[in-house]
Write a structure and sequence with these properties.
The structure is a homodimer. Chain A is an alpha+beta fold and about 300 residues long. In chain A, about 30% of the residues lie in helices and about 25% in strands. Chain A has two domains: about 5-140, 60s Ribosomal Protein L30, Chain: A; about 150-295, PurM-like C-terminal domain (Phosphoribosyl-aminoimidazole Synthetase, Chain A, domain 2), CATH 3.90.650.10. Chain A has helices spanning about 5, 10-15, 60-75, 100-115, 165-175, 180-190, 195-200, 215-225, 245-250, 265-270, and strands at about 35, 40-50, 80-90, 120-125, 130-140, 155-160, 205-210, 230, 260, 275-285, 290, 295. In chain A, helix 3 packs parallel to helix 7 and helix 5 (about 165-175) packs across helix 6 (about 180-190). Chain A is globular and about 55 Å long.
Amino acid sequence: MKLEELGEFGLIEKIRKGLPKSDDFLGIGDDCAVIPCGDKELLVSVDTLVEDVHFLKNTDPYLLGRKSLSVNLSDVAAMAGVPKWAFLSLSLDKDRNISWVDLFLKGFLDVTKEFNVFLLGGDTTSSEVLTVSVTIIGENKKGSSIKRSGAKVGDLVAVTGKIGCSFAGFSALKNGLKGNDKFKLAHLNPYPKIMEALSIKEYVTAMIDVSDGLIQDCSHICEESGVGIRLYWERIPFCYADFVSKEEMLCGGEDYELVVCFDRRFEEKVKELDGFNIIGEVVEGSNVSVLKDGENVELNNCGFKHF
Amino acid sequence: MKLEELGEFGLIEKIRKGLPKSDDFLGIGDDCAVIPCGDKELLVSVDTLVEDVHFLKNTDPYLLGRKSLSVNLSDVAAMAGVPKWAFLSLSLDKDRNISWVDLFLKGFLDVTKEFNVFLLGGDTTSSEVLTVSVTIIGENKKGSSIKRSGAKVGDLVAVTGKIGCSFAGFSALKNGLKGNDKFKLAHLNPYPKIMEALSIKEYVTAMIDVSDGLIQDCSHICEESGVGIRLYWERIPFCYADFVSKEEMLCGGEDYELVVCFDRRFEEKVKELDGFNIIGEVVEGSNVSVLKDGENVELNNCGFKHF
C-alpha cells in the first residue's frame, strides 16, 4: 500500500497508536505537545513548509520567513500559551543568493521581535527542495493549556477573524490573478492569534487553530472531545472574495484563525471581546455539520491533506 | 553572492550575529541550546537529514529511522544531558510504500525505547525529496550542562571509540564495495554516547560530538573556548580500514564519538573509565594541530560543510 492510500491522518494515527501514554505529558493529537517544567508546562510544536507544497516557488522570501514562524506561533496560540523559544531548520540549494537568505531571516526575526520570541538554534543543510522546519517552545502555567479535548455538549463555538481569505489569496496567486493583495497577504502573511487566545482563555473548554480548514479543524475537536459541532452558515464570517465559493472557504486551509468552544454561561463575556464571532454550538454526535436555512450543507472531500 | 561562497559556517555566524544574547539561556553555538526550567535546564537540538545529502537513496529505512534519532541524541550526549522528548518531522513522496514508513518508524521507535525517550509530536508533509527533521529535548540539573566553551590551556583531550569508521563505511557504500559491514554499520547506525558522557561528566571542562569530523569539531571547541588543541597522531584510535587514508578519517564526519577536554588532575580517573583514549592537550592558540613524529600534519579543506 502506498502512503497516498493511507492518507496523512491515517499515517499520524498509525504513529500515534504505537506510542506509550502517560499522565506526565501530552503527546500527538493536539496543536502542541505539553511537557512538565516545574510550576510551568512547556508547549512544543513543529511545522515544516516545503516548496511547491506549502508555498509556490518565487514566494517573497521576507513573507516566507514571517510565515514560517507565524504558523508555528499559531499552534501555541491554539493552546493559549505564550511563545518563548524558536528553532529553525533551513534546507537550501547551494546556488541560492545570500540576499534571499537575508530577506528570509529578516522576516523570521521580525516575527520573533513582535512576539518576544528568541531564535536559539536549528540546522542548516543543503537540499534541492527548499524546506523550512520550525520548532517552537511556548510556556503556560501548569495545567492551564487549552486542549482540543475539552469541548462539552451545550458549549458555544466562536471563531476569530474571517474564514477563507487565505484560500482566496492562494487561488489568486496560483491562477495569476492581478490585485487582490489583501487576500494574497492573508495567505502569505498570516497573523498568529496569541493575544486573542489569551483574552478568551478563561472561558474556553477547547481550542484549535484553522490550519487544515474550518470544517476539518472543527472535526479534530469533535474527535478529541467525543462530540459533534453544528455551525450556522449565516453566522460564519466568510471572506469577501467573489472568485472562490463559500464551500471552498470552509474547506480551504491556512486561515490561522482560532476556533474556540466555551461554556454558554460566558456568551455575553465573549461577545464583549474584540474579534470573536459565535458561529455554532457543540452537540451530541461525532461530526461537523453546517446548517444553511435549516438544511445540511454537503461538503465533500473537505480540507487539506498531504497524502 | 551565493550561499556556496558564504559557506555553511558563514551562514550560521551571520544568523548568530543578529541575535540578542542573555544570561537566561544559551543559543546558537553549541550542540544544544539551553533553556531554564525550574531547578533543571532543558537541552534542545534540531537535526535535519536530507536524501542524497546526508544519506544515499535506498538507505535501509529501519537504519535510517534509527540514525535520524541517534544523531540527535548525540547532541544531548555532547552536553552530558539525559534525552527525554523527541519530535519527528517527516517529508515524504506520496508514492512511498507504507512498508517503508513502517520500517523507518520501527527504527526510530526502537531507539526511543533504548534511551527511554518519548516521541511527542512533529509534522508529516509531502515532498519530492525525503527529508527527516528531528527535534530532541533533553534535561540536566540546572547549570550542569557541558559546553564547548569551557576548555582551559593545560587540559587533556580524550575521545571515545574509533575515528574514521563512519567515513570508511560511507566510502564503501558510495563506491559499492562489497562486505565491510562493520564500517557500513558505523555509518548507518551510529550509537549515541549518552552513558559515556554521563560517566565522565564530573571531570569535563568542554565537550562536543564528532559530527563534522574530528579536526573540525575540535576547532569548534577552540573557537568557543579561545584555545588551541594539539593532537598526537600516534594516540588517535583510527579505524582499521585500509581503503581510506588516516587523513580522510580525521576529516570525515559522522563518527558521533565524543571529544572531551578535562583537567589533567583527573588523568588517572579518566584512564580508569571505559572507552576513552587520551589523544592530545589544550594549548594556547586558536587552531587544531596534529603532530606526527613531532611534525605538523597538513590537513587541507578538512571537514564536512553543506555549502
